[in-house]
Structure prediction request, 164 residues.
Amino acid sequence: MQVSLEERFAIEDILSKEAESLDNRDWDSWLALFTEDVEFWVPSWDSEDELTKDPNAEISLMYYKGRSGLEDRVFRIRTGHSAASTPMPRTCHITANPRIEKAEYGFQVTARWMASAFRQETSMTYYGSYHYRLVGNTQALKIAAKKIVLCNDLISTPLDIYNI
Prediction:
């Protein structure tokens, strides 16, 4: 089933808001984009060609079940209790090529992404694909699930929510 222009614009808007919130370190706006029971998952690569499939039974680069996990992460960043986030890098996220499918619950969206970060004279670039489950209508979309596939997973610095 094809999505309407209004639906496409609303979906592209929430993807842009997420990137902008991360880059501006506007943590409250970023957290507000997610449902209370969101699943935020960054699987690790099991082999060169396969990702891990079960965040409860296999190693993940990051996994939060519920917005409270994301809120805890933001709390640690804000209060300086995250050595990996001190000092905070400057970031720039780009989300592109969204593929949107209607689903019973709302929308399934896959997009490509790239994020660059600069800290202490070091630049890092991360890239991959986002896989979203969006719920609600065009006036009130929320992210109910976000799976982040990180293509370049051999990284030399700590990985955090703002890097990806």
About this structure: The chain has one domain: 5-150. The chain has three helices and six strands. The mean pLDDT is 93.
